[in-house]
């Protein structure tokens, strides 16, 4: 009986020595994974921000171009009144 008890105690002692090493390995592994996830999330955020900024700049540029086009057409139409042929409406009284 005492031999079995001694083996259990020895086994328990070995496990207790190995367990902190495993815990440290697990903690380090989780830290690395967390850091990778943070880096990936940061890169994705930067990419989305860059894409958003580019889309916003494109939208502003197209809006500006559209507005300029409308203003130009308004000026052109405003400077040239419609050309109507009124010659058939002239009556000699």
Task: Kindly report how far apart the N and C termini lie.
Answer: 141 Å
Largest sheet: none
Mean pLDDT reading: 81
Order of helices and strands: H
Class of secondary structure makeup: mainly alpha
Shape: rod-shaped
Note down, in words, how this protein is organized:
The protein is rod-shaped and about 115 Å long. The protein has one helix at residues 2-79. Helix content is 84%, strand content 0%. The chain has a domain at 40-64. The chain is an all-alpha fold. The longest helix has 78 residues, at 2-79. The relative contact order is 0.04. Residues 83-93 have a biased composition (Acidic residues).
Features:
rod-shaped; 93 residues; mainly alpha; single chain
Write the layout of secondary structure elements.
Elements: H1 2-79
Compose a concise summary of this entry.
0% of the residues are buried. The chain starts with a helix and ends in a 14-residue tail after the last helix. It is rod-shaped, with a radius of gyration of 41 Å.
């Amino acid at each position: 009986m005492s031999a079995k008890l001694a083996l259990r105690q020895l086994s328990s002692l070995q496990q207790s020595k190995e367990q902190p090493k495993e815990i440290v390995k697990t903690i380090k592994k989780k830290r690395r994974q967390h850091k990778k996830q943070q880096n990936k999330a940061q890169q994705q955020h930067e990419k989305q921000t860059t894409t958003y900024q580019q889309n916003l700049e494109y939208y502003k540029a197209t809006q500006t171009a559209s507005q300029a086009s409308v203003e130009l057409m308004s000026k052109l139409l405003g400077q040239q009144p419609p050309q109507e042929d009124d010659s058939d409406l002239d009556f000699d009284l």
